[in-house]
């Protein structure tokens, strides 16, 4: 049974940082590309960043480029999203995603506010 479990969200002031984690199980994590998405309040879910297997290539939405870093630890079956210089517009529920099975995690809330 495929599972994706996110953690690491919370309340942070503008300019602060958070590091999200997503632990995967039930499939051969190291073989697949993974991605992060987010859904701001009252808006559609949007893509944030992707990483290929072995971390060979990464891609970012323009809105987070230079502030967020996606990475993975295949030995721990874990996907990460390091978020720096957070802005109020980054407030959202963040999800990790495995496209092969259209599998989403339960999400973790990130709130950026003073």
In this structure, how is the largest beta sheet organized? 7 strands, mixed
Q: Estimate the global geometry from the Cα principal axes.
A: globular
The overall pLDDT, averaged over residues, is 97
Q: What is the distance, rounded to the nearest whole angstrom, between the alpha carbons of the first and last residues?
A: 40 Å
Figure out the total of helices.
0
Can you offer a commentary on this structure?
- A hairpin with a 4-residue loop joins strand 7 and strand 8.
- The protein has strands at 3-7, 10-12, 18-25, 34-39, 46-51, 58-60, 68-73, 78-83, 92-98, 103-104, 108-112.
- The chain starts with a strand and ends with a strand.
- The protein contains no helices and 11 strands.
- By secondary structure, the protein is mostly beta strands.
- The model has no long low-confidence stretch (mean pLDDT 97).
- The chain is 0% helix and 50% strand.
Question: What structural keywords apply?
Answer:
50% strand; seven-stranded mixed beta sheet; four-stranded antiparallel beta sheet; 114 residues; mainly beta
Topology:
Blueprint: E1 3-7, E2 10-12, E3 18-25, E4 34-39, E5 46-51, E6 58-60, E7 68-73, E8 78-83, E9 92-98, E10 103-104, E11 108-112
Parallel strand pairs: 2-11
Antiparallel strand pairs: 1-3, 3-8, 4-5, 4-9, 5-6, 7-8, 9-10, 9-11
